[in-house]
Design goal:
The protein is mainly α. It has a single domain, classed as DNA polymerase, domain 1 (Orthogonal Bundle), CATH 1.10.150. The chain has five helices and no strands.
Length: about 70
């Protein structure tokens, strides 16, 4: 994966401000930190399924993915 891309802030994703703030409160600031999380991890942080799907799509648009559950 592209290190330059992974070192970018999660602010670049087109997701809700509430979700961005929640992630930052949990010390998830950079895309590389977000990409180490699974859908289950994000759900456990209190992020809705709809918002998790939005995060997944946003990451895929720039060539990144959440960590797989397997």
């Amino acid at each position: 994966m592209n290190d330059k891309l992974l070192n970018q802030n999660i602010d670049r994703l087109n997701i809700s401000c509430k979700t961005i703030e929640l992630l930052k409160d949990k010390q998830i600031i950079l895309l590389k930190e977000l990409c180490t999380k699974t859908k289950t991890n994000l759900k456990n942080l209190g992020i809705s399924t709809q918002e998790i799907n939005k995060i997944e799509v946003e990451l895929q648009l720039i060539g990144l993915n959440l960590k797989s559950n397997y």
